[in-house]
Amino acid sequence: MLATPSSTDHRGGPSSGLTKLRNTVSQPVVAAFCAGGVAGAVSRTVVSPLERLKILFQVQSAGRDAYKVSVSQGLKKMWREEGWRGFMRGNGTNCVRIVPYSAVQFGSYNFYKRNIFEPSPGADLTPVTRLVCGGAAGVTSVFFTYPLDIVRTRLSIQTASFAELGTRQKELPGMWTTMVSVYRTEGGILALYRGIVPTVAGVGLNFMTYEFVRKYLTPEGDKHPNAFRKLLAGAISGAVAQTCTYPFDVLRRRFQINTMTGMGYQYKGIADAVRAIVTQEGVKGLYKGIVPNLLKVAPSMASSWLSYELSRDFLVSLQSARTEGVL
């Protein structure tokens, strides 16, 4: 006689293990953690060429014009000099960073919201509470993954044709080699967290805006809005949040390479950096690279939120499907 599924479960066989796995990944916090990792990898890969071009614009100081070009010219230059690899330069490290970053960010946001900030299960949060909750999630995720962001920035610019960097490097050091080099030669563990203060600023705004926009794009009682409304909410929230906090992103990139020779700046702190940029490059210096950033923000944020919600909903549904006997 063939064993029934229940008897297999009783003996702790494969069916039991699969059931435990489904039960684990279908828990809201775990589902949010896993879905966040998927969302991060998908969104960054989709916009990798624009993301790298934005960084090249951001780090270019006054008097440097290697990348003082339009978005289309910059992309053509990147393709002509480095080919397809130029479009994807640093994306591998970025995905290694963004998967745990997004996973921790979405997972901790969901955890903080459910276990700390919600007055009662399912209760609506105020915009200020969402801001605090999102900020806490941002600090958590940034702390765990920030060193990889510095490595990604270094790898993104090392093959670009910046005359101030000397001859472009054809053979780059690996991700871990770069990280160890920064640690050993630029100040130890603090060097791997250079620029973290402006990075944290504005993370909560994205969560607050997204949920605020979703509330108005989703009819009352509609628990499963269609994909278009999810895409629209993600695009709007991303555009608003990133535009408001963009100068902090420029500061982050500048500080991440502040110790590299030949880039034209050696800032002593945030106030000194802002003063120097405005004096030498004007207020527009704080918005260098905003055009490719705005071009990428819609597909990036939209694909991020869409893939996050689809992945999360699928994982959460495993529990209800098992309960109903579908799986």
UniProtKB/TrEMBL annotation:
It holds the Pfam family Mito_carr. This is Mitochondrial thiamine pyrophosphate carrier 1. It is found in: Mitochondrion inner membrane. It is a multi-pass membrane protein. Keywords: Membrane, Mitochondrion, Mitochondrion inner membrane, Repeat, Transmembrane, Transmembrane helix, Transport. GO terms for cellular component: mitochondrial inner membrane. Belongs to the mitochondrial carrier (TC 2.A.29) family. Its main location: mitochondrion. One of its GO terms (biological process) is transmembrane transport. Solcar repeats lie at residues 27-115, 125-220, 225-314. Mitochondrial transporter that mediates uptake of thiamine pyrophosphate (ThPP) into mitochondria. Residues 1-20 are annotated as: Disordered. The keyword Methyltransferase does not apply.
